[in-house]
């Protein structure tokens, strides 16, 4: 199996489109007001947003986007007006992460895991 795409809910897809374009995703389907789909600039996965009547409560899904230029990307996004819950921080599991939320409160983590993304020292062989 290969991961094709992840879809998150939104109360305002147009507002989400603006946010995810600032994040750096490439808009490839724009079916406003109900749906939008993006390509990631690296790899083959896509990401979409769909209109819902109400958002789920609780923690929900966490979406991770990886970039080798994490600190530079965070700086660029702050300059573009994006707020972060947590600036880039080295984690005990050997990833560096920055945490934020999209306009609907969906949790987004920008990170760099390098070789440890799929091959941490504790990987099961």
TrEMBL record:
Domain VOC intervals: 2-113
Domain of life per record: Bacteria
UniProt xrefs under SUPFAM superfamilies: Glyoxalase/Bleomycin resistance protein/Dihydroxybiphenyl dioxygenase
Protein's name according to its UniProt entry: VOC family protein
Organism: Aquimarina hainanensis
């Amino acid at each position: 199996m290969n991961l094709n795409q992840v879809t998150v809910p939104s109360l305002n897809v147009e507002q989400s489109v603006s946010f995810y374009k600032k994040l750096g995703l490439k808009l490839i389907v724009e079916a406003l007001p109900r749906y939008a789909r993006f390509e990631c600039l690296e790899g083959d996965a896509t990401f979409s947003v769909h209109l819902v009547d109400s958002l789920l409560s609780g923690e929900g899904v966490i979406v991770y986007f990886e970039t080798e230029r994490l600190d530079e990307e965070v700086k660029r996004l702050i300059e573009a007006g994006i707020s972060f819950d947590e600036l880039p921080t080295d984690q005990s599991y050997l990833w560096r992460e920055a945490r934020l939320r999209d306009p609907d409160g969906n949790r987004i983590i920008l990170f760099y895991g390098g070789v440890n993304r799929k091959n941490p020292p504790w990987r099961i062989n």
